[in-house]
Amino acid sequence: MGKPWWHRWFARQPVAPRTLPAERIPMVWRDTPTSPMPDWEALRAAAPTTAEPAAIDAYWTSVGAQWLDRLSASLGDDLVRHESPDFLLLASLADRPARAAMSFLEATRRRILRLLDGIAAPNGHGPMIVIMLDDARYLDFVAQFYPEQGTFSESSGMFVHFGYGFFVARGEHLDEVEHTLVHEMTHGLVSHLPLPAWLNEGIAVNTEARHAGARFSLPDAPWSPEETQARHRAHWTPEAIQRFWSGKSFIDPGVAQPLSYDLAMRMVQLACVDWVPFARFAVNASMDDSGMAAAETHLGHPIENLATALLGDGAWTPDPKTWADGVEVGRFRHPRTGVGVRFHPPVL
Fold first, then answer.
1. What phi and psi, each to the nearest 5 degrees, are found at residue 158?
2. Which residues make Cβ contacts (< 8 Å) with residue 302, sequence separation at least 6?
3. Cα within 13 Å of Cα(336), Cβ side
4. CB under 8 Å to 338, separation ≥6 — which residues?
């Protein structure tokens, strides 16, 4: 009997380490009271203007490696930097599990680019940066990306779309964070698009579900299908659906967050049955109207039809003029630092 399909997608083949540039780029650091953070604007201004991709790649590789080394000195010297052709990883892993983690990351990146053909794209020059931290260090590190005021749901990972762009996972071992890494890497590989939050999360959760290899259910929504449907019908009102379309419900505490992720997952499943028009829809969807215009053009129906199919008849049309607080587009903005983050729901 041949190997199952998922083995072909996620087989952890050995990977060669990335060759780090011999020249160390002079670093510029932000004045922050928390973990060391490069001054991305200054470093971008100093980046080579040559069109030679190798020179630009070497520059950002040096920046990323030096940042992770400084993070290790700050967060704990058990955190070691590891390299592969497309990744820099900072984690408390011995050599063998670190090699397995790098192989997994490389295989996952290849698969996401194939799976999201026409939507996902390599994220520019330099390696993707991944940070794996235990509970205490994760919470301390990500605190800087939350607003100072407000109540927010916890996360098990986030893609931070700021400066270089990187993702951080809550867990020290690969088997604890595989789903989170798939989810956050998906966000990284579609970060060139201004996707509405529901579409961004729906794509990421469905990609994560494909990795799971079975019917996927969100870890923070442990309800039966019948109870989930009942909760959807009870929660979504004409007012609440506007928070979904604007993206605000994805960071609301309580039941709103898991229901938002679940609704987004199911809407994307309906929309992507015919892949080519869905891909065209995704690359043209606007955060300003939550994809209304793109749906009419590329899906051939109003965007609210997706909600109607799942929730029944109702006033589900996006109404951007009611979004007084703006929109969330997969890059939640810290009001003080401007940092954009995409959260992954916690595993309970």
1. -155, 145
2. 292, 295, 296, 317
3. 8
4. 162
Q: Which residue has the tokens 């997969």?
A: 330
What are the boundaries of each domain within the chain? 5-189, 197-329
**Contact at 8 Å (CB) between 346 and 150?**
no
- Tokens 């898991």 belong to residue: 258
**Residue 304 corresponds to which amino acid?**
E
Q: What is the DSSP letter of 139?
A: H
Rounded Cα distance between 105 and 114, Å, is: 14
> Which two tokens mark 153?
């749901």
SS3 24: coil
* Distance set, CA 116 to CA 11, 178, 276, 281, 309 (Å): 19, 19, 11, 13, 24
pLDDT tens-place string over residues 36-93 = 999 999 999 999 887 788 888 889 999 999 999 999 999 999 999 999 999 999 999 9
What is the C-alpha separation between 146 and 149, in angstroms, rounded? 8
Instruction: Please state, for a pLDDT cut of 70, what percent of the chain lies above it.
Output: 81
Q: Which helix (H) or strand (E) holds 100?
A: helix 95-115
CA nearest 259: which of 278, 277, 274, 237? 237
Whole-number Å distance between alpha carbons of 81 and 21: 15
- With a CB cutoff of 8 Å and minimum separation 6, the contacts of 299 are 271, 277, 278, 281
> Are 81 and 90 within 8 A, CB to CB?
yes
3-state secondary structure of 178: helix
Cβ pair 194, 287 in contact under 8 A: yes
- Laid out side by side, the sheet with 128-133 consists of 80-84, 87-91, 128-133, 166-170, 157-161, 340-344, 332-333
Read off the pLDDT band of 113 (50, 70, 90).
very high
Question: At 235, which helix (H) or strand (E)?
Answer: helix 225-235
Written as six digits, the tokens of 235 are 């929660």
Distance CA 330, CA 155 (A): 14
- The two structure tokens encoding residue 98: 């670190």
Q: Are strands 128-133 and 166-170 parallel, antiparallel or unpaired?
A: parallel
